[in-house]
Amino acid sequence: MTAIIDGKAISQKIKDELKEEVARKKAQGRSATLAVIQVGNDPASTVYVGNKKKACAYIGIESESFELPEETTQDELLEVIDRLNDDPGITGILVQLPVPAHIDEDTIIRRISPLKDVDGFHPMSVGALCIGEKGFVSCTPAGIMKLLEYSGIDVSGKECVVIGRSNIVGKPMSLLLLRANGTVTICHSKTKNLKEVASRADILVVAIGRPRMINEEYVKDGAVVIDVGIHRMEDGKLCGDVDFDRVKDKCSAITPVPGGVGPMTIAMLMYNVVSAM
């Protein structure tokens, strides 16, 4: 029987644990405030920002919103980030991505203080992950590790294949699996014999950005399959990078879309903010 990994339930457990930790830290006189910056009024970004603010309220930390108009210049945005970097009352800063085309995303990410980089995107955060030092970890890969942990799936000694090499998911995911003593292969658009490589995996993490690309031919019997992708199809339904219906009976455990990896991203953002208290 295939286990369906319930990201909603696990993320709720994490938020409840964080709520208790926040209460303990507040009793010691410590506090946290997350600053969320949104440039423009992209509807999806507005929903994400709203969800982050709700999560902050639930676990008992403050949030401040900076909703800037679409025409905000890069220099104006950098000034806001500088002010928040210098504000001792702000413990975490995130800029909701994507930003408008006239603003350079990399410049913005690098301007946020690594001490407040709760998204885990700053090069210093990534560098700390690479060499095993303490630092903020990108929320989606960190959330996947928690999904595995709370589902009783041990990474140590397992053959792990990550399909996708983005800076936000693929690369940090591979480093976290390696840190947990997995044997890791990273695949991408230039990988030859992708089906053959993927079907060796005990743990297969798919972040390739193509709807339902991964079918049963890519999956080893009894594998754990983690689907990072999310796509809205023409019929309005959501699906992932994995063809869930074709794969689910072949694996031992799988994340659904929606309700798998997605809820974990905000839970781990909250984890990062609380760790900065």
Keyword list:
alpha/beta; six-stranded parallel β-sheet; three-stranded parallel β-sheet; 11 strands; 40% helix; globular
Protein architecture, described:
This protein starts with a strand and ends with a helix. Helix 1 (7-27) runs parallel beside helix 10 (262-275), helix 2 (43-59) packs across helix 10 (262-275) and helix 6 crosses helix 10. The protein has two domains: 28-118, Leucine Dehydrogenase, chain A, domain 1 (Rossmann fold); 139-262, Rossmann fold, CATH 3.40.50. The radius of gyration is 19 Å and the shape is globular. The chain is of the alpha/beta class and 277 residues long. The strands form three sheets. A six-stranded parallel sheet has the order 1-11-8-7-5-6. The mean pLDDT is 96. The longest helix is centred in the first third of the chain and has 21 residues, at 7-27. The protein contains ten helices and eleven strands.
Task: Note the run of SSEs as H and E.
Answer: EHEHEHEHHHEHEHEEEEHEH
CA-atom Rg in angstroms: 19 Å
Strand content: 15-25%
Count, helices: 10
Quick structural overview:
The protein is of the alpha/beta class. It has helices at 7-27, 43-59, 74-86, 105-111, 123-131, 139-150, 170-179, 194-198, 244-247, 262-275, and strands spanning 3-4, 33-39, 62-68, 92-95, 159-163, 183-187, 203-206, 224-227, 231-232, 238-239, 253-254. The protein folds into two domains: 28-118, 3-Layer(aba) Sandwich (Rossmann fold), CATH 3.40.50.10860; 139-262, 3-Layer(aba) Sandwich (Rossmann fold), CATH 3.40.50.
